[in-house]
Amino acid sequence: IVLSAMAGLAARQVRKSAGVQRMPPTSLLIGSILGVLLSIVVIIMDIAHLAGDLSLMGAVAIAYEPLHLMTFVLLCLGFAGQPAARALQARSRERTTRMLVAELQPLWAAATAARPGISQNTRGSIGTDPETLLHRQIVEIRDAIIDTRVSFQVDDRDRHLIERAERHLLGGGATEPAPAASRATTSPVLQKR
């Protein structure tokens, strides 16, 4: 019963996951299914032993050891793989964030030169968190773009870079196509401010 419930939960996680995050629940799903099969083999062996049918017990026992080993290995991989996959994904996200911060740096410098923002007054207190810095860059670049008092224009390449950075902050990934909401004049990141 426990393994069947775990298989159901793992199947739901597999459908919701993507990329590296899909591997641990897949391992748990397969391990749970094998665990259910292992339980059935044990029940058949027990019934055959009680009934005195040792030939049936011996025939079914052939499947016991491989099922036992595979169940154990796959369940352990699934449980250990979840935090490992999250750590890999977090490291990858931080690397992408730092790359986007570096790519936006020249545009941000030009935007804050055209329209000094909060960062001019708090350069030292922005912090070292790359996500916070990326958010600040996007907000100040967008502010410079929409401020009619200053002349600050961006080309299509820069606009695409800003949209990639916004999608990244919103969890959509830096390389996915822009969702309809991020194509709007007012960005979702700007609305959060």
Q: What can you see in these coordinates?
A:
With 193 residues, the protein is mostly helical. The protein folds into 2 domains: 2-89; 91-192, no CATH class. The protein is built from 7 helices and no strands. It has helices at 2-16, 23-51, 54-114, 118-121, 130-146, 156-169, 188-192. Helix 2 packs antiparallel against helix 3 (54-114). The longest helix is centred in the middle third of the chain and has 61 residues, at 54-114. The chain is rod-shaped and about 95 Å long.
Major sheet description: none
Based on Cα principal axes, name the global outline.
rod-shaped
- Using only C-alpha atoms, the radius of gyration works out to 27 Å
Helix and strand sequence: HHHHHHH
Strand content: under 5%
Indicate the low-confidence ranges by residue numbers. 176-193
The SS-based structural class is mainly alpha
Percentage of residues assigned to helices: over 70%
Distance between the termini: 48 Å
How many structurally independent domains? Answer: 2
Overall mean confidence score, pLDDT: 83
> What's the total number of strands?
0
DSSP helical segment count: 7
Concise summary:
With 193 residues, the chain is mainly α. It is 75% helix and 0% strand.
What tags apply to this protein structure?
193 residues; mainly alpha; 2 domains; 7 helices; 75% helix; rod-shaped; disordered C terminus
